[in-house]
């Protein structure tokens, strides 16, 4: 792998990771409600999901999706359903205190890991990215195990690093503006964003 080839891959991965969408909304949600720790857990599990997509692409995901377009459509609808689920869950959540709040916080780390991976696995934007862009860097003739590992690690580290930065900046912003408690209005905005993203995903099919 030449340096220019790798730098081109880095540029494409950075643009893909930094473009706003469902993944950013999920990391922000957990960073705001669960703090930097949960935001970073969501970022790490999201990176694992992206790494899974990269590996699948190297193993022929693009050809499989083109041969069976119904699989891609099912993935899109599952992603939209998950986004809608997250939005509705926020809308139906009730303020809690005492032991109930502590119990919710103890399970939020696991929820952050689950949401981070799920939104990566079910995010149609990621599927399009790997089918349309990442696959262009795959040369089946000259692909070796070492090159494949470098490509997968590049995608995983850039994606994870970006969302770890998002989680850290969100925490700094909360401290900067003395925003330490969850706001009902902010929760409603997040819920609308998730539901809006779900509708947008369905309309784009």
UniProtKB/TrEMBL annotation:
Keywords in alphabetical order, please: Cell membrane, Membrane, Signal, Transmembrane, Transmembrane helix
Q: Superkingdom of this entry's organism?
A: Bacteria
Has UniProt tagged this entry with the keyword ATP-binding? no
Which cell locations does it reside in? Cell membrane
> Which membrane topology describes this protein?
Multi-pass membrane protein
Q: Output the InterPro entries linked to this UniProt entry.
A: LeuE-type
Q: Which parts of the chain span the membrane according to its record?
A: 41-62, 74-92, 112-134, 141-165, 185-203
Signal sequence region: 1-25
Where is it mostly found?
A: membrane
**Which protein, by its recorded name, is this?**
LysE family translocator
Organism equals: Pseudoalteromonas prydzensis
